[in-house]
Write a structure and sequence with these properties.
CATH topology of the largest domain in chain B: Rossmann fold
Strand content of chain A: 15-25%
Number of strands of chain A: 21
Number of helices of chain A: 9
Helix content of chain A: 10-25%
Number of domains of chain B: 2
Number of helices of chain B: 16
CATH class of the largest domain in chain A: Alpha Beta
Number of strands of chain B: 7
Largest interface: A-B, 31 and 32 residues
Strand content of chain B: 5-15%
Shape of chain B: globular
CATH architecture of the largest domain in chain A: 2-Layer Sandwich
Radius of gyration of chain B: 22 Å
Distance between the termini of chain A: 65 Å
CATH architecture of the largest domain in chain B: 3-Layer(aba) Sandwich
Radius of gyration of chain A: 30 Å
CATH superfamily of the largest domain in chain B: Thiamin diphosphate (ThDP)-binding fold, Pyr/PP domains
Oligomer: heterodimer
Number of domains of chain A: 3
Order of helices and strands of chain A: EEEEEEEEEEHHHHEHHEEEEEEHHEEEEH
CATH superfamily of the largest domain in chain A: Chloramphenicol acetyltransferase-like domain
Helix content of chain B: 40-55%
Distance between the termini of chain B: 66 Å
Largest sheet of chain A: 7 strands, mixed
Shape of chain A: flat
């Protein structure tokens, strides 16, 4: 039996998508007969059979993304045919994981051949040297002198930094005029043009070996550069005692926020906003507070806003959608899982109210109160924050008027509510036109512009605003 | 409209054709095909073998046996016709796609594939084959070729009364390379010294994804007049016309009458390389239109019609091509793995001391592994 592996169809590619099988189990195939079409980050290519025989099984389905080197089909050959080792199949190192164990997390493509991978590499034993398992990635990073993996996956988006049209002045510190010597005479942290602490490679190596973070070391060398002595002192805990910056580890919720917002940056976003006269909403809230059903519940404008969003969503279901890039489809979600952005000690969390579209105002108020209680007590679970379809964020509670919210990943829109301000406002028409003091709030909607256009976003926002301006009109929805 | 001319049917443009896509012979006042049907049949065989070599190599890349392959599919007539014009004292400087010419010059296909497999250097015997090494840097070979041609002048191998005592240089490059500085410098020097070199542009219409009409506002052959040398455009899918025109230009060069630029108007039926996907930038209709001008089909049609060949002859060539395919397929897996010492052995005739130390250090390191002895025996 011949096992056909996925070759690297381009240069240094790591994986390919099976787009179409051209044979089925039981089919007879000839040498070089095209059996499958695969699509890589670079191209759509046809793969030929290496041997003649009868197709055994297809080990990957159309649409599967398969790592290079894994078996994608078997061919029953009539005779034992010598098959050459593919040139780009690693012989000595087990770089490519079998498909069953899932795709190894690759650290990046390299110029030629395979990218690096986190999969442990089998190392050749040295004579008289005990085997020490060193992750392959460490070695690669070390040789490049980078903390991050060299190269990147082809589909990864790396936003480039801002480039100023005019040159900075001065572009580099002048010789002898180190930045550390300016001002009070106290040492400052000197950095190189890319923001790393000034240190020679050997010093960086020493710091890595001694597990010293160079950004926390004050340099005493020329131009404020860090000397081997500085590193040694820092390692020995003898650092001068000066206070460095406080360093907060990016973990848990904060780390999640970083990743979510970074992912969000890939989405082309647009914002629309409008000022709304919410005087009637404020009156409605006051009335609700007096009702028995709402006794004991905290009634805030968010509840009315949540209801307004659900009502408007019924008219504009496409706002409650997400994008399935893999299948090139917009997925309109049947349920409104209404996310509420909440600030906590640990960072930002966005739990959501599942199936909010089926709730009346009272149920919404209860669900929201439950969520707030859970947030306060730190009991929000990953399930609470999963599968959101739309998010409301309320910066009004901080007295802030507006902002430009950024999409929660996999959601097509996010709505920001600003603070309620008493403002002069033009009311009435014609002869009756006059200025009154009204309560005004700004609503800002950010949309995923791949899914929604400005018209859809604006119409949705206008409907939400209509309900807030005159809650009675919700009867029309 | 001034400038952009990309159609082969423009009556104002030079376009030398001796065999139509339908297999009909046509006459040309200046360029006549001076050979018999046996020569045409030999050309057909070279084209079929060249195509088989190319498709087998492309398939090998798709099976993971080669790292990369630049297909020559569709350019067989341009390559074989020009290759057939080469004589004993001539030198050929290829780019990296002249696979059919390489076979004609006697280069072993497995010798070529080791480079694309990544297990060996480009090191076939360019003296014995007079087919120089593939040049992967675009257009550099135009300068090498011009320099070599100037050397022929100095060796007294040009312009002798005895035509058999004369040589010339044939250099291949693509339409994309015509935008390179090296190619233009080579043209300037060749014209200044009236060097015996024929610049053979295979205009396959696409420089990777860049169409020719973006690269050149005029047909490429007309650039020759700017350098002060003759420029000709030939149907690059017509092996008869290509051979006739190349012979004319090489004869001229051998006689000491200077360089010529030939634009062989052809089409790259495949991808730029196996890492490229032409469906992303060109239309199926365009490919289909060119498929109808296939360089092999028209010769087969013509020779069958004249009775110069029969089906048995074609079956024989097909069997030969099949044997070539099998030999390549089976041989590529047997290509030897590269050896560490070749790093140093193949660059310098005598190794400088610093590199000698480096080699010794690496070899000591290699020997320090537990399995080094087994490795060495492999």
């Amino acid at each position: 039996m011949f096992e056909m592996t996925l070759p690297d169809p381009g240069e240094g590619l790591l994986e390919a998508e099976i787009t179409q099988w051209l044979v089925a189990p039981g089919d007879t195939v000839e040498v070089n007969q095209v059996v499958v079409e695969v699509e890589t980050a670079k191209s759509l290519v046809e793969l030929p059979a290496a041997v003649a025989g009868v197709v055994g099984e297809l080990r990957a389905a159309e649409g599967d993304i398969v790592p290079v080197g894994s078996v994608i089909m078997t061919i029953e050959t009539s005779e034992a045919e010598p098959v050459a080792t593919p040139v780009n199949e690693p012989v000595e190192t087990s770089v490519v994981e079998p498909v069953e164990t899932g795709t190894p997390e690759p650290s990046g493509a390299v110029l030629v051949g395979y990218g690096t991978t986190d999969a442990p590499a089998a190392r050749r034993a040295r004579k008289g040297v005990p085997a020490t398992p060193v992750p392959e990635t460490d070695q690669v990073h070390e040789s490049y002198g980078l903390d991050e993996s060299p190269g990147h996956r082809t589909e990864a988006v790396h936003p480039t930094g801002k480039v100023d049209a005019e040159a900075h002045d001065p572009a580099l510190p002048r010789p002898g005029a180190g930045r550390h010597s300016s001002g009070s005479g106290e040492l400052a942290y000197a950095t190189d043009p890319v923001g790393r602490p000034l240190a020679k490679p050997a010093v960086r190596r020493l710091a890595r070996d001694l597990d010293v973070d160079l950004t926390t070391v004050a340099g005493t060398g020329p131009n404020g550069s860090i000397t081997p002595t500085d590193v040694a002192q820092a390692a020995a805990g003898e650092a001068s005692g000066r206070r460095g910056p406080t360093r907060i580890p990016l973990r848990g919720v904060r780390r999640q926020m970083m990743h979510a917002m970074q992912a969000s940056l890939r989405v082309p976003q647009a914002s629309v906003w409008m000022d709304v006269d919410v005087t009637n909403t404020v009156e409605l809230i006051e009335q609700l507070k007096g009702r028995r059903e709402f006794a004991g519940l905290r009634i805030s404008p968010i509840i009315v806003l949540a209801k307004a969003v659900c009502l408007a969503m019924a008219r504009h279901p496409e706002v409650n959608s997400s994008l399935d890039l893999e299948r090139q489809e917009i997925v309109v979600n049947p349920d409104v899982n209404l996310g509420i952005a909440a600030a906590t000690q640990r960072g930002l969390v966005v739990p959501n109210i599942k199936g909010a579209q089926n709730m009346n105002l009272l149920e919404l108020a209860q669900a929201l109160n439950d969520l707030v209680a859970k947030v306060r007590e730190g009991r929000i679970t990953p399930a609470d924050a999963a599968n959101g379809t739309f998010t409301i964020t309320n910066v009004g509670v901080f007295g802030v008027e507006g902002g430009t919210p950024i999409l929660n990943p996999n959601e097509a829109a996010i709505l920001l509510l600003g603070t309620f301000n008493r403002r002069p406002w033009v009311v009435g028409e014609g002869e009756d036109e006059r200025i009154e003091v009204r309560t005004i709030a700004k609503l800002t909607l950010t949309i995923d512009h791949r899914v929604l256009d400005g018209e859809q976003g604006s119409r949705f926002l206008a409907d939400v605003a209509t309900i807030l301006a005159d809650p009675g009109l919700s009867l029309l929805f | 409209m001034v400038g952009v001319v990309t159609t082969s049917h423009d009556p104002d443009e030079v376009f030398i054709q001796l065999l139509t896509p339908d297999g009909e012979r046509v006459d040309d006042e200046t360029f006549a095909f001076a050979h018999d049907d046996a020569t045409i049949a030999a050309n057909l065989r070279h084209m079929i073998l060249g195509r088989r070599f190319d498709t087998e190599a492309t398939a090998l890349q798709r099976k993971g046996q080669l790292g990369l392959w630049p297909p020559s599919l569709g350019q067989e007539a341009a390559q074989v016709g020009s290759g057939a014009a080469v004589r004993d004292l001539d030198e050929v400087f290829p780019s990296y796609r002249e696979h059919a010419v390489a076979l004609m010059r006697g280069v072993d296909p497995l010798d070529m594939l080791k480079t694309f497999r990544g297990t060996g250097m480009v090191d076939w015997d360019s003296r014995a084959t007079r087919f120089h090494l593939y040049s992967f840097v675009i257009g550099t070979q135009a300068l090498h070729a011009t320099g070599y041609a100037m050397g022929l002048q100095r060796d007294g191998l040009v312009g002798n009364d005895d035509p058999d005592a004369n040589g010339a240089v044939l250099v291949y490059f693509g339409d994309g390379a015509t935008s390179q500085g090296d190619v233009n410098e080579a043209l300037v020097f060749a014209a200044s010294y009236q060097a015996p070199v024929v610049f053979f542009v295979q205009n396959n219409q696409w420089a990777i994804s860049e169409p020719i009409d973006v690269q050149s506002r005029i047909p490429l052959y007309r650039r020759a007049s700017g350098f002060g040398i003759p420029g000709l455009r030939v149907d690059g899918n017509d092996v008869l016309a290509v051979q006739a025109v190349t012979e004319w230009a090489l004869d001229r060069a051998r006689r000491g009458e200077g360089p010529t630029l030939i634009e062989a108007f052809t089409y790259r039926m495949g991808a730029h390389t196996t890492s490229d996907d032409p469906t992303k930038y060109r239309r199926r209709e365009e490919e289909a239109a060119w498929r109808a001008k296939d360089p092999i089909e028209r010769v087969r049609t013509h020779l069958l019609a004249t009775g110069a060949i029969d089906q048995a002859w074609l079956d024989g060539v097909d069997a030969e091509a099949e044997a070539l395919g099998v030999r390549i397929r089976e041989g590529v897996g047997q290509l030897p793995e590269p050896r560490l010492e070749d790093f140093w052995a193949l660059a310098y005739a005598s190794l400088p001391p610093a590199l000698r130390r480096q080699r010794d250090a690496y070899q000591a390191y290699e020997a320090s592994f537990e399995d080094a002895d087994a490795e060495g025996a492999r």
